[in-house]
Amino acid sequence: MTTDSVSTGDDPHRLLSDVRLLAGRVRRDQRLTWVALLVLAAVTLVAVPFDWLFMKVQCDDGGCMFSRRAMLYYWPPALLLAYAAIAVSYVRAARARGLGARVLPYAITGAATAVVLTAAYTAAAAYFPSHPPFGGGPMPFWWIVLDRLIAPWGLIGLALLVLARLERNVPLLLFTLGYLVLVLLVVPTTEGMRLPDWLIPSFLSGTTTQLRLSMTPPQLIAGAVLLAGGIGFSQARRRQR
Description:
- The chain has 241 residues and is mainly α.
- Helices cover 69% and strands 5% of the residues.
- Keywords: Membrane, Transmembrane, Transmembrane helix.
- The chain crosses the membrane at residues 32-52, 72-91, 103-128, 140-163, 170-189, 219-236.
């Protein structure tokens, strides 16, 4: 009876562990989370002047009616271009490393959100002027949350959840959940509030200007959070290298 020695390199458990470590390194190396967040931040912040210019406001003794036409004229093409740019960045980075990219489901989800946004706001613009929700009275909080979910910044969060799943990226998942809590549960309560007069220059005074300005903070907050996230993930990637 003889005893043969087995090297640690032939240990199946050791080999499996090495394969898992290598797969994890490959996944981390493929991540361009910071690129996605910075592109989406740019799209969100650039939307602010577009929302201002394309917002239609009509005021009378009974109050003011507004239509955010940038939701149709700016956001759908902007989202499509943004997700196309993100997908191209992932594919180029993967090819440079001789690897495959799994970004297609994310790009498809992003494109689908642009379609959902267009359909939702087209239907709302056609239906709600003659059928005010809740009889024109105060809207319940759940309705506000739903409205924010199908808004561009809410749909961006849903698409980021898909990206976190594809990358198996726990930090991105946690960031996205925090972002969604902010834009769905916190930011909506600021919309429609009157800004202090001392914050508004005299040449921007007026009811219609007040209404436009009251819509700006949510977009600025969402864009700033995405920008901060992109910078943070970029710095973390540099430290890993």
